[in-house]
Amino acid sequence: MKKVNQAIPKIDAKALVTGKPVYTDDLAPKDCLIVKVLRSPHAHALIRNIDSSRARKVPGIVAIYTYEDCPKERFTMAGQTYPEPSPYDRLILDQRVRFIGDAVAIVAGETAEAVDRAMKMIKVEYEVLKPLLDFRKAKDNAILVHPEESWRSLCNVGADNKRNLCASGKEENGDVDQVLSECRYVVDQTYHTKANQQTMMETFRTYCYMGVYGRLNVVSSTQVTFHARRILSHALGIPKSKIRVIKPRIGGGFGAKQTIVSEVYPAFVTWKTGRPSKIIYTREESQIASSPRHEMEVHVRAGADETGRIRAIDVYTLSNTGAFGEHGPTTVGLSGHKSIPLYGKTDAFRFQYDVVYTNVMSAGAYRGYGATQGIFAVESAVNELAEQMKMDPVRLRELNMVKEGQIMPAYYGEMAKSCALDRCMQRAKEMIGWDEKYPAKDMGNDKVHGIGVAMAMQGSGISGVDTASVAMKVNDDGFYSLMIGASDMGTGCDTILAQMAADCMDCEMEDIIVSGVDTDTSPYDTGSYASSTTYVTGMAVVKTCEKLKEKILLKGAEYLGCRTEDAEFDGKRVWCPKDGKEISLKDIGNRVMCANEEALMASEAHYSPTSPPPFMVGMAEVEVDVETGKVTPIDYVAVVDCGTVVNPSLARVQTEGGIVQGIGMALYEDIVYNEQGRNFSNSFMQYKIPTRQDTGEIRVEFESSYEPTGPFGAKSIGEIVINTPSPALVAAVANATGVHIRELPITAEKVYMGMKHTK
């Protein structure tokens, strides 16, 4: 491998660091209509009347739309493969508003000032209803978030709007209750993770214009370009053939842009008026009306025998989807499917879940996608089990962790064909000095250092669902065009796929031109989510390159007048060793431009029936001030098995970034609502995300395995890296203080009061 496994800089690095106009708002024309959304001040209400007559008279106002002007067919904003597991519970604008910040009216004008003025003049008469704010009381509550008869679910996910259920299910293997009754050691605890914001640098934004053929063109910062086209078709009630979606550079997504948050509003305006329009979410809108991580409460029972074998794990997850069901049925599954299989010697497991509607901002996709919440709970329970057994938690995991070659019943019955989890644990233990530091050290001056550990797994795409297609052609002079449908959102997937193509074609990176996503020209790809790009799209690249090489060899042999089986292609030429004749790729590229009946182009698709998991071990060292309860991260080490590391630099920054987000979730981030359902965490003044000074030292290494079903042996890395900080940090605090924090974030108040209570 000449390019794969090399730390090659991102191909768009120069444009980004020099401030080239590459993002959505950079590309929008200056005469765009400005679109803004009037939002509900009530968590639950019916709109009885909207008077926009004064607002329409404001100079510069072009259009004001209410629920009476919009289509009445429900849809979902979840960027998922059709038929979507998420219920069809949305309208562009609805008479019923379901959270504070829900859309009430769309206002479009020539200037932002005109729009702002008009929005203040719109008078709305509400019938205020009692909101349902406690997700623990939502199931079978008399208050229904979605009482409408037009609500529907396309897939059998246990959804029932008349019970406030977005999804419900149960899976089990063996008799959990019987096995737990036989266990000498049992942990029975409930863990609570709050909603978290993705806080990507570029907020939600979209601009739209009508093409010369009367088609709606949508330029948007989205992770799911092709899904966006389908969702807009459903929302607007127009054929997909009338819609084109283009993805420019994305300023971060982390899952937030797997939901179609902003697109429908300017799309509706442009379709109705024929004029270009754009919407740019403020930071406040991105905090109160977006798609944060699902709040979950996870009840775990785990039992072990005298030898330290974990024999049974029982998980029940209650997930809060909020006002709408985007990604609710699918995120919850990962809370069990990506936590229970970490332990490979169980006799029985059970996984049950309910996903409920409430009158708060709807949740969506966020890096880790439910696995983060489930792993926090299960790994915390295992750490508490180790404490009960008076066993080193590293040793307990070494005795029970899944090993290569094992079948994982709780992971769809898949086999771990590549797994270096044992080596990850050993390396992490060496890096942090576990044996010398465990469990804690009194540093004097009321400071105690504690240390904690956690394991994690994720997936590589959605098995049996995700599909990626790639097209590649030879141009004149012999350079290549690589056309992909995967959305690079700062992750560097354009670079990684080009590295794979360069190795396959035995050429230089400069010889490959990567084209971004445009639904009119790009081959179909489900999008950048579920850690799918490297694994699924990467295999499509490999298959496409193999096919293209065959075509080049065939055409070169034809030009040389020799048999194909006697010719060879070395990336620069086709030649016949028997007689020494050769023709360069440059000459082949130029010759096919004249008197040719077959284009030198190939396209292949790929999907995988399995989703091989990457694995990770994280270890945290914290300092706790026992006088105040303040927790300060000191050191975090992470060792990741993502198969073959395609680009070490990009893999490292992915890991470091995910760890920082995980530390934020564990220690700082908290969406707070008042008793009326108002979100107080509406800016970075109220919603704290960690700076580099808040995270301590972060050290990352890789233990490679080889995944036989992946391109060059690669698996995913994008999501797994956020999953270990929360349980590792909670364990470190527990070892330092004896206080087990079971509700995130870990605050000084919780630690201090816990220490006071245990004295």
3D structure, described in words:
Helix 9 packs parallel to helix 10. The chain has a seven-stranded mixed beta sheet with strand order 3-5-1-12-9-10-11, with helices on both faces. It has a five-stranded mixed beta sheet with strand order 7-15-14-13-8, sandwiched between helices. Strands 18-19-27-28-29 form a five-stranded mixed beta sheet, sandwiched between helices. It has three domains: 13-129 and 201-252 and 256-288, Alpha-Beta Complex (Aldehyde Oxidoreductase, domain 3); 295-460 and 611-758, Aldehyde Oxidoreductase, domain 4 (2-Layer Sandwich); 467-607, Aldehyde Oxidoreductase, domain 4, CATH 3.30.365.10. 27% of the residues lie in helices and 24% in strands. It is α+β, with helices and mostly antiparallel strands and 759 residues long. The radius of gyration is 27 Å and the shape is globular. The longest helix has 28 residues, at 533-560.
Q: Helices, strands, pairings?
A:
Elements: H1 13-17, H2 24-27, E1 33-39, E2 45-51, H3 53-56, E3 61-65, E4 96-97, E5 103-109, H4 112-121, E6 123-128, E7 165-173, H5 176-182, E8 185-193, E9 205-210, E10 216-220, H6 225-236, E11 243-246, H7 264-273, E12 277-280, H8 283-288, E13 295-304, E14 310-322, H9 328-337, E15 348-357, H10 371-389, H11 393-400, E16 407-408, E17 414-415, H12 421-432, H13 434-437, E18 440-444, E19 447-457, E20 467-474, E21 480-484, H14 493-505, E22 512-515, H15 533-560, E23 568-569, E24 573-575, E25 582-584, H16 585-591, E26 601-607, E27 615-625, E28 631-641, H17 648-667, E29 697-702, H18 725-737, H19 748-758
Parallel strand pairs: 1-12, 10-11, 14-15, 21-22, 28-29
Antiparallel strand pairs: 1-5, 2-4, 2-6, 3-5, 7-15, 8-13, 9-10, 9-12, 13-14, 16-17, 18-19, 19-27, 20-21, 20-26, 23-24, 24-25, 27-28
